[in-house]
Structure formats: C-alpha cells, structure tokens
Amino acid sequence: MEPKIGISKENLGGVAHALNKILADEYVLYTKTRNAHWNVEGPDFHSKHLFFESQYEQLDEIIDSVAERIRSLGHYAPATLKSFLELTHLSEVLHNKNDGTGFIAELLNDHESLIIHLRENINIFANDLKDLGTSDYVTGLMETHEKMAWMLRSHLR
Q1: pLDDT lower than 50: segments of the chain
Q2: What are the distances in angstroms from CA 71 to CA 16, 61, 65, 122, 126?
C-alpha cells in the first residue's frame, strides 16, 4: 500500500532514491570497518580490534534504521552488494598496511565524506521534497557520524 502521509508520490520516490544512496554508503563503510576489525595488526591490535568492533556495531544499527526508513516511505531498500556498489559514492580502498593508523585515516575520510553528503541533503529533503521527517532523521545520522569521526580523529592526534 502506498503511504498517505502528506508527501507526493514523486517526492516519496525522490526521498527513497536519496536514502538508497545513503544506505549504500553506510553498508560500504560498515564493510570497510569490519575489514579493519578483522585485519588490523600491530602493537595496539587488541584496543583497535575492540574499537573497530564498536564502530561497526553502530553502523549495523544505522544500516537497519535507514532501510526501515525507506520501507516506511513505501519503497524497497536495495539489498545486494552489486546495488550498494552502484549507489555508493565511497570507494573500496584496499589497504596495503594493516595498521590501526592507516585504517583509522581511511575510515575517517569516509565518515567525513558521508557527513558532507548528509549535510548537503538535509535542506533538500525538507524544502525540495517536503519531507521534514527525513530531514530530521538525516540530521540525526549526520550527528552520529560526526561523533564517530571525532572518535576516529582522536586516535590520530
């Protein structure tokens, strides 16, 4: 059934399409964080292993939340690796050295890129697509990523 929530069918489609891209970014970032968790090496292995685990657990919750937001707007969420790679603006970078600092710098770059992307879309959701709920939701996502980026950045000082 089509949701009757005061947003036109066309705008719901636009919101869902934009959220599909955000979901893809979140999934790629989750996978890269899992990679860091599994493959980090060095004298700080244990602390970084646990740190990356806490980050991918947060991302797992975000992924589910974004997909549910898409579904609540009457659309299907993409759910294949192929679709995520087609939709994401992040890249799958293969890390040459599996040290904590390298993984952290790479993940920080992705979080900051995602923060910028989210920030650019907040007003589009509210003003252009007339969806204040998604605008508010994306603002919360941005704030979560800002905190996650701060945690990553603090390891590099």
Answers
A1: none
A2: 9, 15, 10, 19, 19
